[in-house]
Design goal:
By secondary structure, the chain is of the alpha/beta class. It contains six helices and seven strands, in the order βαβαββααβαβαβ. The longest helix is centred in the first third of the chain and has 12 residues, at 16-27.
Amino acid sequence: MRGAFAQAGQRVCRTSQDTKELGRELGEVLQAGDVVILDGPLGAGKTTLTQGIAGGMDVKGRVTSPTFVIAREHRPRASGPALVHVDAYRLVGEGSSGDPLGELDALDLDTELLDAVVVAEWGGGLVERIAGSYLVVKLDRKTLNEADPNLEARIISWRVVGSASSD
């Protein structure tokens, strides 16, 4: 990551638009080779955050959940890296070969992973195998919504793990 985006932090996002805006801020500082792991339950806002990241990176295509295709590649509109949006659950979960990097590579993406930004939903267990440093983003929709489950609010926290951080 480049720029002034904090290596660790937390933000309350009250709406989906707030979540997209945080994603946009993050997308503007991501660089080729960066890996972002999105951790949170179903409905936490992982794909919404990725839509914001895509906007900040200025990539092509509609960002939707990669659940059924495992990975989607979004090419840049101008200069800059592509965005590879991955459903890592399918790469490391039941029925996988045990080699998530091999499975991701076997998808025959047009972009080399080191030349792209990889955003992995359900990425725990994958990133540790493909990157020495990565950004973990946790989306918590439960804490703020226990009293009213119809709220969109979520707490999003992040931290850099690995060689680029003090861990």
